[in-house]
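ARCHIVE CARD
SHELF: 3
SLOT: left
DATA:
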Amino acid sequence: MASLRQSSVLPDANIWASSTLHSWFALIAVETMGSWSIFWTEDIMAEAVKARRKRFPRSSSTQMESLRDRIVKHFPDNRISNFPHDDTVTYKDEIDSHVHSAAVHANIAIIVTDNIKDFEGIYNDPDDCPYDLLTADEWLMLAAESAPHAIDQVLMQQYSYRLKQQKPFNLVKSLHDAGCFEFAEYIRVRLQEIA
């Protein structure tokens, strides 16, 4: 087996479908300048756009297209393509087999998904799984522990962007609503310390 790409991350569609998580993940990857390498597939992008369209049926095509366009712009060389389906394992949810197959093909170190249960049990022995499975909250906390200064920079970018929109916002609540309870608390504390 080939060695894993260090700090390589493959976010599942449920991460990209969330506006909150999409912006945090992308900004952290850009801000850490290669400390984290975010990878993607066309299948994952299509699934994310479909989920967003379902939530926002009246949005313009530009809003939907921008999801993929931003990923392509910031991570043009990190698309995983031409990967075979991995028939050597048993899938709990075959719909997610493309995510596993892409990760194995590209030697990804971490899959980030909020559907961990769909990936559990793929291998009879969990130690055989070649990548780590993390929730969005777990990965964001890992990023915060490894690059706290970068998280502060992203926090300030998020805050400035929201201020310019001139609409009420609450970064902590948005993270909490996205299921990132621990990271939301981390950001709440950082906001108090930075202010």
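SLOT: right
DATA:
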Amino acid sequence: MERLRDWFRDRMAGRPGWMNVLMLFAAFMAFVYCPWDIFVKPAAIDEEVWFGVRFHGAWAKLLAIPHWLIYGGMAYGFWRMRPWMHPWAAVYWGQVAIAMLVWPLLYVEGVGGLLTGLVAAGAFAALTHALWKAEPLFRQGRLPLRERYGDWALVTGASSGIGAEFARALAREGISCVLVARREERLRALAEELEKQHGVSTRVVACDLAEEGGAAELVRAVEDLPIGVLVNNAGYGLAGRFSKLDGERMRKMVTLHCAAPVVLAHALLPGMLEAGRGALLFTGSVAGKQPLPLHAVYAATKAFDQLLGESLWSELRGTGVDVLVLEPGSTETEFQEVAGERPHHGQPAHEVVEAALDALGHQPSVVPAWFPFLRSNGAARILPRSLAALIAHDVVEKRAREELH
């Protein structure tokens, strides 16, 4: 119960009490009342109100759907304090205030009903005013990353894709970067870009974290630096039937995705704890949330990263060290080509990184787009595991090159 209270207290922090009440009301409407109203309540007795005007029957059912979407968006917007909540939350409750005036004029006789409507309209007008004045709460940006975590970050897999975008984003915040990957020429080109555009220092470490001892070699190369941010991003995909894949390549994948992040986090964490601040980021994948035939080893390693990161998030609460698992879906990187997949649409890497930095310090993991979130969580939580595996098999098979089937 104490852990539950701590979690609830954390979730309620950062908002005034009245806003937390409004958030809980929106969640109740989105997850309990509106589904019952739409799918269970008989249409013959259904009634929906917009701007004080009553609708019945089929019209009520139809107009309940936007109410459902509004309350769902409102619950999420309050939960994450999204900037778009201003002015739209105030606009919606302003509509309710107007409805309280229109309702008695259309449907209630006598002075008593009019007075009741005026009182209710005044209350909702006050709520509308409070939401309008709450704009700074919705627009408060994150603290500068350098102020939160220190002067140096270490980014693995920095030669391209998500890793390179992490380095650019951190450098924009004034954080100097250790750039790690196998391709030294690319790292040096990125280092020159960061130094020239953002005035930060860089250190290039060309090493292969998929080899035994690679992570330990990297630790020795940065032992003189106060690393405050560790981005465990290095990785690659490998598509094909498990029985036909190269065994050594699979072993290297396990070393790169699982062993290296453990070694690096374990080596750098004591310095962060001593400083009372730091950040550990793990690039997982939505693939780690469900069975993924033809990507079996990749999915298993990403499940490892997710469980490791989320466990450390709990262990390190209150120490000043933030932990986040980034779980992207398809991303516009070299991943598809290296993994042996046909080219397909993906989210831009810079958007993935921005979502991660926004979530860092607020939650244990993040899926940076709606569709991958719904697809991965829906399959894992709603469908039987056997059916989820079969559906995933069909989807992946269409993306994989024919010679890998």
